[in-house]
Specification:
CATH topology of the largest domain: Rossmann fold
Shape: elongated
Strand order of the largest sheet: 2-1-3-4-5
Protein name: LytTR family DNA-binding domain-containing protein
Number of strands: 15
Number of domains: 2
GO molecular function, one term: DNA binding
InterPro entries: CheY-like_superfamily (IPR011006), LytR-like (IPR046947), LytTR_DNA-bd_dom (IPR007492), Sig_transdc_resp-reg_receiver (IPR001789)
Keywords: DNA-binding, Phosphoprotein
CATH class of the largest domain: Alpha Beta
Pfam family, one: Response_reg
Order of helices and strands: EHEHEHEHEHEEEEEHEEEEEH
Amino acid sequence: MSRKTALIIDDEEASRFLIRQYLADYPEITIAGECRNGLEAVRDINAMQPDLVFLDIQMPAMNGFRVLEEITHIPLIIFTTAYDQFALQAFEMNALDYLLKPYTRERFSKAMDRIDRSGHAQNLHFLADAQTVNFPKRILVEKGNRLKSIAVDEIIYLKAEKDYTQIHTHDQQFLSSQGIGIIEKRLDPEKFIRIHRSHIVNILHIREVYRDISKMFLVMENGTELSIGRNYTDNLKKLIY
C-alpha cells in the first residue's frame, strides 16, 4: 500500500481511539487529525485533503452523509457506524466499506485491504471526468403536485435551505428535496460554480462582481446580490481574464 493520510471522524472518543489503535498496524497511513462533529469534518477534509476518511454517520451538527454533500475534496470513505440501516445509502455513494460497530481488528483489516484495489478516490462516481459526463439540459422539478420541466440554462442560482435546495430562475422558484451538494455534482461545472457554502451560480447569468470593504459580491441578471465566501474565491478567479 502506498503512503496515505487519514482523518478520523467520530463524536465518540472510544471509537476514535479504536481506529487509532488498529491503524498502528499500518505505518504507511499517517493520521492527519480527528474530528468530533460534522462541521469540523467538512472544515478539515477540505483543508487537509486526506486520502482516506473514517466517517461516522450519526454526529452532532451534521451527519456523515451531509458531510459528503458539503465537501469539495473527495477522499476514500470508510463508514464506521452502529447503525446498519444506512448501508445501502453508503454504498450508493460509493463508500469503500461500511464497518458496523462493534467491529473486530480482522474486519478492519478487510476494509483496509480494499484500499489498494480501489485505486484512488477518483473511482467515486461523482468525480467522473466532466468531458465524459452527459449533463442534463433539462430537469424535472416539483411544483405543487406536479413535476415541471425547466431548462438547466434557465437556472440563475441555487441556494441551500437546510436539507433542501431552492432553485431560482428569472421568474420562478422551486424547492428540491436534494441537498445542494448532491445537486452540484449533477450540474455542468463549466457553467455552475460554488461561490459560497450556501450558493451555486450559473455563470451565464452573472451581471457583475464588486467588492464592498472586505467582501466580494456577485450581481446576477435578475438583480439578486450574493456574497462570495472566502473559501470559494478561487472558483471565481478562474473566470477572470
